[in-house]
Amino acid sequence: MSPTQIAALIAAGAFVLLVLLLAIPLLKLARTLDEATVAIRKAHENTDPLLHGANDTITHVNTQLERVDGITANAQAVSGNVSALSSVFTATLGGPLVKTAALSYGVSRAVRARRKAKSDGGNKHVLRRVRGGK
Questions:
Q1: 116: Cβ–Cβ under 8 A, 6 or more apart, which residues?
Q2: Transmembrane: present as a keyword of the record (predicted)?
Q3: Model pTM greater than 0.90?
Q4: What is the DSSP string of the chain?
Q5: What is the rounded CA–CA span in Å between residue 77 and residue 103?
Q6: What count of other Cβ atoms lies within 10 Å of the Cβ of residue 130?
Q7: Is 116 within 8 Å of 126 (Cβ atoms)?
Q8: What is the spatial distance between Cα 112 and Cα 89, in angstroms, rounded to a whole number?
Q9: How far apart (Å, rounded) are the C-alpha atoms in residues 41 and 109?
Q10: What angle do CA 119, 122, 125 make, to 5 degrees?
């Protein structure tokens, strides 16, 4: 055997050893990719029912929001009617009620003043003050 043949055999052996050393990480990488593929497939299969459930939930929430919208519209109409009713009440009965309250206040004050005047012994200046005199 010549020295070139021995060198070629050593180079060939080194190349085979290099290929074997590189094959081990490549095989491990292939297994990892297979496991990742299986995990992605399982995740895809499990998300379908989850998305259907989320869709049903959103549909239910939209239905409830439509009901709440109807309730708010009715409440707004009722508050508008109450506002109109209070305006009518104020316009119709507010003025006379204020006048009646003022009259009853004045009458009760005059009655108190007369009673006080009688209890003071008929003091004339108290009676004049009630009648509007000086």
A1: 126
A2: yes
A3: no
A4: --HHHHHHHHHHHHHHHHHHHHHHHHHHHHHHHHHHHHHHHHHHHHHHHHHHHHHHHHHHHHHHHHHHHHHHHHHHHHHHHHHHHHHHHIIIIIHHHHHHHHHHHHHHHHHHHHHHHHHTTS-HHHHHHHHT--
A5: 38
A6: 15
A7: yes
A8: 33
A9: 93
A10: 110
Longest Cα–Cα distance of the chain, Å, equals 159
Residue matched to tokens 């959103």: 58
Instruction: Please give the mean pLDDT across all residues of the chain.
Output: 86
- Cα of first residue to Cα of last residue in the chain, in angstroms, is 153
Residue 56's pLDDT band (cuts 50, 70, 90): very high
Among the listed residues 131, 101, 100, the one whose alpha carbon sits nearest the alpha carbon of residue 114? 131
